[in-house]
Amino acid sequence: MSRPPDPLSEMAVGLGLRRALLGPLQDAAPEDFDFLECAPENWIGVGGKLGDALDELSSRHALSCHGLSLSLGGFAPLDETFLARVRRFLDRHHVALYSEHLSYCSDDGQLYDLLPLPFTEEAVHHVAARIAQTQDIVGRRIAVENVSYYATMPVDRGQHALDEADFINAVLAEADCDLLLDVNNIHVNAINHRYDPHAFLAAMPAERIVCIHVAGHYDEADDLKVDTHGAPVKDDVWALLGEAYRRFGARPTLLERDFNIPPYAELLDELATVRKLMREHASVPVSHARA
């Protein structure tokens, strides 16, 4: 029987496992990072040199998984065969944290984008049931991530519209799952949809936050930001990360960089900033921080 995975330390910092970074990650010093995150869709069934590299890295570093294609908010039946393969992958690599996006990404086929859900009670019940089904199949709690979005879904007449924070809280409570908090997505959405990022952050449930993502974005205009994961983290997002630590305490934190990948040393500099903010802000006690 596979050994149970060790949970990530609350002070852990991590990097995305990208194939373009395989060399530096394999050569990394033990203190460079504490965990790696991969999309299981990109690695399940991969063999040869790449499969050997994954096995070697997961034998030395904790691994988390962040899915891309489950479409928790969609209407097509969940792919139970795929989820069974995910479960085997998680067990094989002793993965403690499996997360997905609070969105949908498929209809008759993959749409290759993460699309927003309507913030309604009907949508809460729908996606919570699918999260519960996912947790049953993979045999563990999962976390869902607050996503960036650029348009809101219309609400049918007669349905009660929730705000985004209330929608997320309702899903988490009904599904009894965890939250992967993406502070860059909060910043992007707050600019694009004209809301207060600090109020949104304050509304998130500390007891369900199991990981934090931080990333860069593209400034299309003063009032339009695009979530790209292809640029350095900006000052406003660093500030929001520090606020999250003050409010919730330390949480495992992943630096996301998916393209325009800089020299490895620059990623280490950003990880150093994560550690600095964690040291400076996470020890401040607040009344609703997790014990």
Describe this structure in words.
It is a single chain. The chain has a single domain (13-281), classed as Divalent-metal-dependent TIM barrel enzymes (TIM Barrel, Alpha-Beta Barrel), CATH 3.20.20. The strands form 3 sheets. An 8-stranded parallel β-barrel has the order 1-2-3-4-7-8-9-12, surrounded by 4 helices. Strands 5-6 form a two-stranded antiparallel sheet. The chain has a two-stranded antiparallel sheet with strand order 10-11. The protein is an alpha/beta fold and 291 residues long. Residues 284-291 have low confidence and may be disordered. The protein contains 9 helices and 12 strands. The protein starts with 12 loop residues before the first strand and ends in a 10-residue tail after the last helix. Helix 8 crosses helix 9 (264-281). The protein has helices at 22-27, 48-60, 80-92, 121-138, 164-175, 183-193, 197-203, 235-248, 264-281, and strands at 13-16, 35-38, 62-66, 98-101, 104-106, 110-115, 143-145, 178-182, 209-215, 217-221, 224-227, 253-256. It is globular, with a radius of gyration of 18 Å.
Short description:
With 291 residues, this protein is of the alpha/beta class.
Search tags:
291 residues, alpha/beta, TIM Barrel, two-stranded antiparallel ribbon, 12 strands, 19% strand, disordered C terminus
Principal-axes shape call: globular
Overall tally of structural domains: 1
> How is the largest sheet built, in terms of strand order?
1-2-3-4-7-8-9-12
Helix content: 25-40%
Please compute the radius of gyration using only Cα atoms: 18 Å
What low-confidence regions span 5 or more consecutive residues with pLDDT below 50? 284-291
Order of helices and strands: EHEHEHEEEHEHEHHEEEHEH
What is the distance, rounded to the nearest whole angstrom, between the alpha carbons of the first and last residues? 32 Å
